[in-house]
Amino acid sequence: MTDENLQVRLASRPAGRPTAGNFTFTTEPLPVPREGQVLLRTRYLSLDPYMRGRMSDAPSYAPPVEVGGVMVGATIGEVVESRAPGLEPGDVVLAYSGWQRYGVARADMVTRLDPASGVPVTAALGVLGMPGCTAYVGLTEIGQPKPGETVVVAAASGPVGATVGQLARIFGARAVGIAGGPEKVEYVRSLGFDAALDHRSPTFTADLAAATPDGIDVYFENVGGHVWEAVFPRLNQFARVPVCGLVASYNATSLPDGPDRTPLLLGTILRKSLTVRGFIVSDFMASHQPEFLQRAAPWVRDGSLRCREDIVDGLENAPEAFIGMLEGRNFGKLLVRV
Amino acid sequence: MTDENLQVRLASRPAGRPTAGNFTFTTEPLPVPREGQVLLRTRYLSLDPYMRGRMSDAPSYAPPVEVGGVMVGATIGEVVESRAPGLEPGDVVLAYSGWQRYGVARADMVTRLDPASGVPVTAALGVLGMPGCTAYVGLTEIGQPKPGETVVVAAASGPVGATVGQLARIFGARAVGIAGGPEKVEYVRSLGFDAALDHRSPTFTADLAAATPDGIDVYFENVGGHVWEAVFPRLNQFARVPVCGLVASYNATSLPDGPDRTPLLLGTILRKSLTVRGFIVSDFMASHQPEFLQRAAPWVRDGSLRCREDIVDGLENAPEAFIGMLEGRNFGKLLVRV
Fold first, then answer.
1. Where in chain B is the domain with CATH 3.40.50.720?
2. Which CATH class is domain B4-124+307-337?
3. Looking at the complex, does the CB of residue B19 fall below 8 Å from at least one CB of chain A?
4. ipTM for the whole complex
5. How is domain A130-282 classified at the architecture level of CATH?
6. For the residues of B225-261, what is the DSSP string, one character each?
7. pTM above 0.90, yes or no
């Protein structure tokens, strides 16, 4: 067992695409838990697109990571030392230790996981975690697909997109998934989506039209960019657009060339009575997570809700894996095995 | 009494700003009501911005007026001849006769008005009509202002905007109205708005900031253009934007110069968890009009909900009045006394 705490810190704020140089590695002595706290050894670190926002000091819904600070992130950790009742060494918990080998946490800020539940503990970072709950909240609160309606989602091989499509089908809607490259498209199809499209194909716009003959009733927006351009004209009257991410523009340093199509967007929102609504899942965890877990855990256990995991070994590889994810180089829920 | 039916028809579709040449006048013999119908003599014709959309054949929520067809519109008419039980000559009704002196209507498609109700019958075209109900639906269904929140609306001397602000205050919110020119601004202030601003002022953006020190929670969008530009950065986390009109762009023939700020709009919707939702009041009349009338009629009677009327005499002046309205040259609810 390593007795030093390897950490990944923000060295500098990226301009555009993050580079390895925006991260720095440090080692520190193990932190010492105080009364009510536990010392955790990180087993898995979740890498998620929202972290790009935390690297920037542009105004956002959450404060940025300070330059020099440890990168934030959800983790699965094993209790090494406990000064809190109810948690024992060896317990496995969902925590927010960030990009480091060890962390201390207040016992009431972690969630004990049951390794014998029939669901891999890593699901707590994926289909049963923040990504899965994002899909659930966006669909149930905003998208509200009715049976027979068409739901479209991009990054459909990722944990949010995969969950959106599978939930849409569980709710009786048609699910059309968009992904990058034939391998991911094939995987999306294997999840039971009614159609799966490659946004890199030169015929993507026509493919989308063919796959949505009745238009699009719900577009779960998590990428933006040219997928949005193709989807936008196909939105039906009264369509709903939950906006949970815009990965395609997270690394952008300038706006696209003109003309300014803002009036076109607002005009279409008016003409088609569209609902375009942004949401951050953390605002809904308290109200929706219990219901989500209660409904979704059986689906995960019986295989009707799943998402592959893309596991990278070694905390030292976290920066490169994260940079690749922003460009779609991961394939499934991206985790670092620490 | 004129025994011919003067009509205003769409002569050609406007490219940009409508001109007098887009309209043509015709006369026809009086139409003859059939069983179940009434012959109406138009007393007042309502002129509303949505009519610009009906002159165009661009895709919209409602079919366009055919070239050569009579311009559509809500009217207040007097029954001249009745072939329907329950309606007698002399009765005054709300109808949709369009831009003409006479019209026939099915008795079940008109609403009898009570000239002795204490409310002028013209209110049925303004604060108690489609414009008032638009304000009510947009605020209660989408804007949902909470006490103490800040509601901003433009075209605040018009029937929708004036109603939005007065309802917002009735609901306990702060109301900030925007209008064009000192006279309209003074009028908006006299309606009880907490602040009234002139969008033509060179200090408009700063004035808006000063008038919304706590940001903007609800922006009732009915104009677009440079008012939207000023409002957009001041929207608060979780702000709601009911989109009911975009008068500033109705005559536009091209998009503004770039860059394309669509990603900025979508990114802000995401970052601030905004709700931007378009609506057409006709989709809500069946569900909301009875409740609206029940609540709002007493407010109109006691003077807590009002809007001035801008009455133009003579159907022959309707085209010019309509063209002027799209440029903000009216002052209050625009009506034609036929």
1. 130-282
2. alpha beta
3. no
4. 0.92
5. 3-Layer(aba) Sandwich (3.40)
6. HHHHHHHGGGEEEEEEEEE---HHHHT-SSPPPSS--
7. yes
